[in-house]
Amino acid sequence: MATIKQDKYILGQSVSKSIASVAEEIRLDLKLSPQPLNNAGSVTGTVKDENENPVPNALVKIMDSNYEPMFHAITAADGTYTIDNVPAGSGYNIFAIATGKALNQGVSFSIAASQVITKDFTLVNDPSSQLGIIAGDLYDSATGAPINGAVISLYKVNEDQTEVLVAITYTNQYGQFVFRGLNIGNYSIRVSALGYIGTSSTVSITTQGQIVPSIINITQDPNASRGTVSGIITDQNNQPIVEADVVLYRVNEDNSLTAVAFTKTNSAGVYLFINVPQGNYKVKSNKTEDIVIL
Q1: Could you tell me which residue, 237 or 128, shows the higher pLDDT?
Q2: Strand partners, 191
Q3: Which Gene3D superfamilies match (predicted)?
Q4: What is the gyration radius of the CA atoms in the chain, in angstroms?
């Protein structure tokens, strides 16, 4: 067993003082602080793909038990990494990810002073990384204000120019909307907002994983009815449901439904749609919740 020397304290430095005369005496005291890195270990390992090939430029990240980020390293050409100076402790979480690969969370670990532990990873392809995204913004053409609660419908445009509905979403309070998981191709975006003239826009996803912006301006309808639809969403105990999703549907002549607006209830369970044109309407409502799967 070899014996080496290491610093017990952090290298200290005193203030400066001058000796200005012959035989003058000065005093330079210094308080040293313990070297915290002496109570630390190292984590090392290799990141490979499903075929046992090394994955260079992968990111390996260590977080504490509350998932606060602490350290990270980038793998070398041979897929190896080392993270030094990890304080002795327990409950560490470790992750690895690379471009085109799915996030891999390793088993949580503990580490002791001067300990070196190995954490290897195998990263698999992330199919969603090959799919495109359309990220849009909807504004009032006259005022530039974002439009909340508009219904955004996405249609895939086929080679024969026929269109197939593939997704529906709603703008948030900033007028933003997002469609995810899209294949390469041409798409048509149709916009419906109460009090506005409907409009459409075309976008194309030309490469895998492409993110396409779409800025749409919509014009107010001067002939639109100024009706309102409001109500209260309650649970089985007649208690108001806060932040419930509420979708307003127009009932067509054949009794089919067309979504025309979206909103959320307030703290009293109340919702309100304004600028509603003449016609028959109904609302649908629900609320999601987070669950823990063991």
Answers
A1: 237
A2: 152, 199
A3: Carboxypeptidase-like, regulatory domain, Immunoglobulins
A4: 30
Residues in the chain: 294
The two three-digit tokens of residue 3, written as one number? 């014996």
Whether residue 216 has pLDDT greater than 90: yes
Q: Distance between CA atoms of 73 and 85, rounded to whole angstroms?
A: 12
> CA 294 to CA 284: how far, in whole Å?
31
Domains of the chain are: 36-123 (2.60.40.10), 131-218 (2.60.40.10), 227-286 (2.60.40.1120)
Q: How far is CA 216 from the centre of its chain?
A: 23
Gap between the Cα atoms of 55 and 76, Å rounded: 8
Distance CA 53, CA 261 (A): 50
Q: Locate 123 and state its tokens.
A: 């990263």
Which pLDDT score is estimated for 294? Answer: 62
Q: pTM to 2 decimals?
A: 0.60
CA 188/CA 168 separation, integer angstroms: 12
Alpha-carbon distance values, 130 to 127, 206, 274 (Å): 6, 12, 40
How far is Cα 77 from Cα 254, in angstroms, rounded to an integer?
Answer: 63
Q: Which two tokens stand for residue 85?
A: 């100076």
